[in-house]
Amino acid sequence: MAEEQFIIHPIPPVWDEHSRILILGSFPSVKSREMMFFYGHPQNRYWKVLAALFKEEVPMTIPERKSFLLRNHIAAWDVIASCRITGSSDSSIRDVVPNDLRPILSGADIRRIFTNGGTAWKMYHRYTEPVVGRPAVRLPSTSSANAAWSLDRLIGEWKVIREA
Predict the structure, then answer these.
(1) Which stretches in the chain have pLDDT values below 50?
(2) Fold (topology level) of 4-163
(3) Of 44, 72, 99, 116, which residue is the catalytic one?
(4) Rg of the chain over CA atoms, in angstroms?
């Protein structure tokens, strides 16, 4: 069984001045922290969902994933800068320190903010929205733990990012 650890978010945000959409997760999984990039677990459907929405091949390498995000004007990061967490369990997260999103929001014309799942939305609503004054749209989690949502159903819900 994994032990609770205090972890500082190790992955920098991906964005540039052309980013229009900001997608926020809660905190990187163990696999993502090992890989040093977002949504590194092969069972997470994030990259499959985005590839389907933008009618592209699923990016596999970190450079391909960064390029995919920037080419499609997507900024990606997480709400949490540091926390105590057991393994990859969002339900174990405590002692949250949020990331400062102001550099992204002032450096790019972010038109809409989306969260990947309920934990990211709750953390954003609690810690970040009061600071930046911008609401986020809660999307269903692409995690394999969200087994009630099929890939097709996720793609159907996530299509709102194309309208941003």
Answers:
(1) none
(2) Uracil-DNA Glycosylase, subunit E (3.40.470)
(3) 44
(4) 15
